[in-house]
Fold this protein.
Amino acid sequence: MKAVGLYEYLDINDPKSLLDIDIPMPSNPTGKDLLIQIDAISVNPVDVKVRAPKDKTESPARILGWDAAGTVIAIGDQATLFKPGDKVFYAGDITRPGSNAQYQLVDERIVGIAPTSLTATEAAVLPLTALTAYEALFERMGISREGADAGKSILIIGGAGGVGSIAIQLAKTFGKLHVIASASRPESESWVRNLGADAVVNHHEDLSTQLKKTPFPEVDYIFILSGTDAYFPQLSQLIAPFGKITSITETKQSHHLDALKTKSATFSWEFMFTHAMFKTKDMIKQHHLLNFIAQSIDQRLIKTTLTHNLGPINATNLKRAHHLIEAGHVIGKLALAGFST
Ligand SMILES: NC(=O)c1ccc[n+]([C@@H]2O[C@H](COP(=O)([O-])OP(=O)(O)OC[C@H]3O[C@@H](n4cnc5c(N)ncnc54)[C@H](OP(=O)(O)O)[C@@H]3O)[C@@H](O)[C@H]2O)c1
C-alpha cells in the first residue's frame, strides 16, 4: 500500500524528511482492532514534534499521522462496535503506526462514527483536537457539559489554532461560559470571534492588564494551548479563587505550584493519548466522546474547523502541512484527502 513515512528524523527542508513509500498492508485485524481504509487525514503539531530532527533511525519506516476519517474494511474477532462499510473518524494511538497510509489498524474503543453531514476531509480535522478540548474542559477542569457553570469565565490561550477552534465552540455551546480567547493577528482575532469568543486578548501583550479591562479581571478556568512556560508565572494573578487550569503543552522550565496555593487553584495536564497509551480500562470513553462530537456536528451545534485543504496525501503535501504548523500561525485545521493512484 502507499504511505508517507520516514527512516530518519530530519529538518522538514531535507528531501528525505518525509518520503512516498510502498509498505506491506497491515495484517488482518485481531481482538478489538478495525482495519480502516483512510479517506482523509489531518496534521497536528504532534506530527511535527515526533518528526523533529534527532539521532535515530527507523526500519521499517515510521508512519506519522494521528487524525483520520475512513471506512471500516474488516473487524477483529472481539470488535462489536462497528461493521465493514461504516464511515469512522479517530485520532489513533501514538504508540502505533499512524494514518499517513492507505490502511491502518485501530482499536475500536478510540474510534467514533463519523458525522454524516460532513465530507471525510471536513471530518478528519476533528478527532484529535475535539478529544483534547473535550477532555480538558469537561473532565480535567470538570466544567458542566449541561451548562450548570453558565456565566463563569474561561481564558483560552491560543484560541485560533486547532484545539482552540473546537474548545471555543464546546465552551460556549455546552459549557455556556463567557469565553475570552487569545489571538495576536486581525485574521486570528476575527476567526475566534466568529467561533463564539465573547472577548479577545493578544497573547503577545500583558494578559493581566488586558483582562482588567474586561468584566473578568480573574477567570474561573484557563486552558493553555501554547507556551506554558511563558504564561505560568502570570497564572496566580489571572486565576480566580478555586479556579482550574489545564495545559496541553509541555514545559522546559520548573514552576512553583505554591503560586496557586492561596487561591486553592488546581493545575492539571491533558494528554489525549493517555487512554490509548496506557490501555486504560475506560478507553471506550473516547468512542462515546467522538460519537457525541459527530452528533453535535450533525445537529449543527458545532462546526468543522477545516480551513486548509492541501490536496492528496503525499510527501510533498505533507511537507507543506509540516511547514505551516512549524510556522505556528495556522488558523483552524489542515487536511489532505486520498492517495493519487
Ligand atoms: N496534550 C495533548 O493531548 C495535545 C493535544 C493537541 C495539541 N497539543 C499541543 O497543543 C499545542 C496547540 O495545538 P494546536 O493544534 O491548537 O496548534 P496550532 O493549530 O498549530 O496552533 C496555532 C495557533 O497558535 C497560536 N499561537 C502561536 N504562538 C502563540 C503564543 N506564543 N501564545 C499563544 N498562542 C500562540 C496562533 O495564534 P496567532 O496566530 O493569533 O498568534 C495560531 O493560531 C501544540 O503544542 C500541540 O502539540 C497537545
